[in-house]
């Protein structure tokens, strides 16, 4: 039997607001347990939630970016369930009237094809606290710092037909929310978590199969692995004559398997009802106008602009626009005088490689875009060769100053004075008569040997083009 994979994702993005969605407590990550949970987050009797305007703005930015219908009137609802990290006994979420309605997102696959994925809705909700099982013997600790942190849950249609598409979609959402500045995208800290729903059906069958839901996946690699495992498992079950039970499963990265967590609850188990403590949210046109005006350039538009404005290839432009900080860095290098193609090369290869090796992210780069631009200017005007530039780059990286200062201090200026290069060449020719003879007898690849000798004698500073030219002239004479 040939099986078709069907996947829909629910992505929880933690919104980058300073305070919580219904209280003034800080959302900063990493504080000592329960130091950032105020009376609202603790659900003390008599306290009332107040909606954080900034969380609404974040949701609207996302809605506008995916061309979604914006819920002009949305309502917060109580989703009732018991869990120790949920002191109110309900989570405030949105149910029937979410703030962001239907929209769509185009994903690009590695083979260059693109596909439109439907987004069903995106709604605002509060996060729960955390249960800590590891630090205590026979007991669980409860940390309510995360309780009340604003989330935007983005629900896709079951439109993905392969694991590759699902991963590409998750990556695209991640890129978008980080571009929009509404989420820091830090997956290790749980700012971006994915629930993946997967089912299979025989090719040609219209009705979907029964799905399982894989909860709380916090890396793209785990997403791919969890889906792969689950796909194989479902095929095994169905081909073994069994049937799939609709349930929530947990992916165990250590064992690389998924296992059942609980049978899937239905929406009506939660007894959703409108939260009487919160007014409906009404969005007026002027706020939407303002959000549209302030919309930053989005990844696809930036990619197109980079290709045109900087005459870059699609692949280079894609690499440079993968993240907003990287794109900004590149543009600052160009602005500081770097030639566009050279800058693309140096930013992705030299700088990217050095950052990778040092385990640093771009924001911590010891080389500023201005310094990089200054360095590239000196390659372009032939003050230094590309090879010497790597040496200068290393010095800038090590904090030895700007390109011009380093070139001066280390005496790295390229020798372009033929009067200075000629005697060196004459010397080398005189000392390597055997090679000269072989060259003249037709062994032309010996040119490389001579170039090498000249470069060695000038410590890499001779202008390579001039050396080539002069050598040829003298060897062929
Ligand atoms: P719930 O809120 O109970 O998780 P939803 O109906 O909101 O359920 O759907 C959640 C996600 O499951 C959506 O992203 C949707 O695209 C996906 N989904 C629904 N049915 C299927 C299916 N048969 N196979 C794969 N994914 C599905
Ligand atoms: Mg779900």
Topology:
Layout: E1 3-14, H1 53-65, E2 73-74, E3 76-80, E4 90-94, E5 103-108, E6 114-126, E7 130-132, E8 141-143, E9 150-156, H2 163-179, E10 192-202, E11 212-217, H3 220-239, E12 247-252, E13 257-263, E14 273-274, E15 281-282, H4 285-293, H5 299-309, H6 314-321, H7 324-335, H8 340-358, H9 369-380, H10 386-397, H11 403-410, H12 418-431, H13 433-440, H14 447-457, H15 464-476
Parallel strand pairs: 11-12
Antiparallel strand pairs: 1-9, 1-10, 2-15, 3-4, 3-14, 5-6, 6-9, 7-8, 10-11, 12-13
Helix pairs in contact: 2-3, 5-6, 6-8, 7-8, 7-9, 9-10, 12-14, 12-15, 14-15
Bound molecules: adenosine-5'-diphosphate (ADP) and magnesium ion.
Magnesium ion (MG) binds at residues 10, 195, 213.
Bound molecules: adenosine-5'-diphosphate, magnesium ion
Shape: elongated
Sheet-strand content, in percent, reads 15-25%
Give the beta-strand count: 15
Report on this structure.
Helix 2 packs antiparallel against helix 3 (220-239), helix 7 (324-335) packs across helix 8 (340-358) and helix 9 (369-380) runs antiparallel to helix 10 (386-397). The protein has helices at residues 53-65, 163-179, 220-239, 285-293, 299-309, 314-321, 324-335, 340-358, 369-380, 386-397, 403-410, 418-431, 433-440, 447-457, 464-476; strands spanning 3-14, 73-74, 76-80, 90-94, 103-108, 114-126, 130-132, 141-143, 150-156, 192-202, 212-217, 247-252, 257-263, 273-274, 281-282. Strand 11, helix 3 and strand 12 (247-252) form a beta-alpha-beta unit. The protein is an alpha+beta fold and 477 residues long. Helices cover 39% and strands 19% of the residues. The longest helix has 20 residues, at 220-239. An 8-stranded mixed β-sheet has the order 5-6-9-1-10-11-12-13. Strands 4-3-14 form a 3-stranded antiparallel β-sheet, with no helix packed on it. Strands 2-15 form a two-stranded antiparallel sheet. It contains 15 helices and 15 strands. Magnesium ion binds at residues 10, 195, 213.
């Amino acid at each position: 039997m040939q099986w078709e994979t069907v996947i829909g994702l629910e992505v929880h993005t933690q919104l980058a607001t300073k305070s919580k969605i219904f209280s003034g407590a800080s959302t900063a990550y990493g504080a000592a347990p329960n130091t950032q949970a105020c009376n609202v987050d603790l659900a003390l009797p008599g306290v009332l939630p107040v909606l954080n305007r900034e969380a609404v703005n974040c949701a609207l930015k996302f809605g506008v970016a995916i061309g979604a219908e914006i819920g002009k009137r949305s309502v917060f609802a109580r989703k009732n369930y018991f869990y120790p990290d949920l002191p109110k006994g309900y989570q405030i979420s949105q149910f029937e009237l979410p703030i962001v309605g239907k929209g769509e997102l185009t994903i690009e696959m590695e083979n260059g094809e693109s596909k439109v994925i439907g987004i069903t809705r995106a709604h605002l909700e509060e996060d729960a606290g955390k249960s800590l099982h590891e630090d205590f013997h026979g007991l669980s600790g409860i940390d309510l710092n995360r309780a009340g942190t604003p989330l935007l849950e983005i629900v896709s249609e079951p439109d993905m037909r392969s694991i590759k598409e699902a991963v590409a979609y998750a990556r695209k959402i991640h890129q978008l929310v980080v571009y929009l500045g509404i989420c820091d995208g830090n997956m290790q800290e749980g700012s971006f978590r994915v629930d993946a729903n997967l089912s299979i059906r025989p090719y040609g069958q219209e009705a979907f199969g029964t799905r399982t839901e894989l909860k709380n996946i916090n890396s793209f690699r785990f997403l791919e692995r969890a889906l792969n495992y689950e796909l194989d498992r479902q095929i095994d079950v169905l081909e073994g004559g069994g049937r799939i039970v609709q349930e929530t499963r947990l992916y165990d990265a250590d064992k690389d398997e998924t296992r059942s967590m609980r049978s899937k609850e239905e929406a009506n188990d939660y007894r959703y009802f409108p939260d009487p403590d919160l007014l409906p949210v009404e969005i007026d046109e002027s706020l939407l106008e303002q959000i549209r005006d302030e919309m930053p350039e989005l990844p696809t538009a930036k990619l197109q602009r980079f290709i045109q404005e900087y005459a870059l290839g699609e692949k280079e432009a894609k690499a440079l626009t993968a993240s907003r900080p990287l794109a900004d860095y590149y543009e600052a290098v160009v602005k500081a005088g770097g030639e566009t193609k050279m800058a693309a090369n140096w930013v992705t290869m030299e700088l990217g490689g050095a950052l990778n090796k040092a385990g640093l992210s771009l924001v911590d780069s010891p080389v500023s875009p201005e310094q990089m631009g200054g360095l590239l200017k000196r390659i372009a005007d032939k003050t230094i060769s590309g090879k010497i530039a790597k040496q200068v780059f290393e010095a800038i990286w090590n904090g030895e100053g700007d390109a011009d200062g380093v070139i001066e201090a280390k005496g790295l200026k390229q020798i372009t004075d033929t009067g200075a290069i000629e005697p060196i060449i004459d010397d080398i020719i005189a000392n390597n008569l055997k090679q000269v003879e072989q060259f003249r007898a037709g062994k032309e690849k010996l040119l490389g040997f001579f170039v090498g000798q000249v470069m060695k004698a000038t410590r890499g500073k001779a202008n390579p083009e001039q050396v080539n030219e002069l050598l040829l002239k003298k060897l062929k004479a």
